Amino acid sequence: xxxxxxxxxxxRVMRQLRHDPRTIAMIIVVPVVLITLLKYVLWxxxxxFERVGGPMVGIFPLILMFLVTSITMLRERTTGTLERLxxxxxxxxxxxxxxxxxxxxxxxxxxxxxSAVAFGLLGxxxxxxxxxxxxxxxxxxxxxxxxxxxxxxxxxxxxxxxxFMPMFVLPQLLLCGxxxxxxxxxxxxxxxxxxxxxxxxxxxxxxxxxDGSLGAGGAVDVVVTLGATVLALMLAATTLxxxxx
Amino acid sequence: MPAAIEVRDLTVRRGGKLVLPxxxxxxxxxAVTGLLGPSGTGKTTLIRSIVGVQIVESGTVxxxxxxxxxxPLRSRVGYLTQAPxxxxxxxxxxxxxxxxxxxxxxxxxxxxxIETVRLTQQADRRVQDQSGGQRTRASxxxxxxxxxxxxxxxxxxxxxxxxxxxxxxxxxxxxxxxGTTLLVSSHVMDEAVNCDQLILMREGDLLAAASxxxxxxxxxxxxxxxxxxxxxxxxxxxNEDGSGSDEGASS
Lengths: 245, 251
What we know:
The complex is a heterodimer.
Chain A lengths: L2 H16 L2 H21 L6 H31 L2 H6 L5 H30 L8 H22 L6 H18 L11 H7 L3 H15 L3 H24 L7
Chain B lengths: L2 E12 L2 E12 L3 E5 L6 H9 L6 E6 L2 E2 L9 E4 L11 H12 L3 H10 L15 H13 L5 E5 L7 H16 L3 E6 L10 E6 L2 E6 L1 H8 L4 H11 L17
Parallel strand pairs in B: 3-8, 3-9, 6-7, 7-8
Antiparallel strand pairs in B: 1-2, 1-4, 4-5, 9-10
Helix pairs in contact in B: 2-3, 3-4, 6-7
């Protein structure tokens, strides 16, 4: 690993984003619009928005970063820049960490804006610290990013890469406890939910926003989320061979 | 002088198709070698094997005394891919600054290579807003950055106007005279005159490896294009009869 190359990669990815103001606007504005929409959709449902509003703040970055990174990495593969990089003195880890830093910064901005709106304007009440919610949102963004990097290896076209979002992310979103508490699901599904990383990401957010603190269970959630991120990054590294057919 | 590149019995299969059925050749150090042949003949596959990004079935490729693609070679070999491999959403300068950081060269070198490929006017415009030729040049600039000992260029002059092509060939000649080894692929024969050595390929086989002069002499053709066509008609295996200095004989 070479810090100079990691930082250069992060700077390069951020520059690419900066040249694409529309994407930046969508990354920031879309979650704000959606969470506002959610408040008014759940208007007459007593307590529903209060239950899901807080955790949603931390779930948006996961979904968006999954999409953004899987497309960006697929582009590196299809335009030949990845092959070019692989002939240079750059370690795979340099590339992946560079991506990680760049998207963590973007996720932080996104999470800060959407929390400000949710907690400030929409009246979402976090029992625990909102700073912790933002930190968890960044951790979730990194999880989404590493899942996206890994998933991009299986897509040949950008169209396929977009389809991976409903395939990889939506089932996790359905089973994580956001829509229905997990103990009210079919028992088999509840078992499955234990194997999905988003379940832990969501659980940690729920503990902070509803219970007021992470506690021991929340600490386990954070460890599992970070562990899943590292695992997905390692798997992503194996999908970046220097030699291709 | 030892060979800069040594390929022995290289076999490569792509998508089930045998692209290189056991090719052997040597590329002289400090010279400009032209890799010529019709498109779809395996030139790019050979080049990818030399820079170490191609999965090979069997055979060996030795580059500057080391196995192709080994880590020490990554700062000694410059590679231009056939399709421009630069970030289209960044400016030329931003692209070069990124590659410069990876190679550990300073920003002044970035300005130098921009000048070499004549992109000073367009340096701060995004690559996607530039013409095909300008993109190729931006990509070429990244290959020049690290002042590599060996440059492997896959069709560097494709889509360029004649004036610029002549200028780039002058640059390549200049690099060779300062000791750089160049391997340049092309499917247009009129570029062959600029090379010290030629490697002619057809359907994955080595058709001939010789200097332009000795090829002309041997085939008695009026120009290289017809010399090449004549060699294709003769088929492989007729090129071991003393083609001069190079001895990269085919199988």
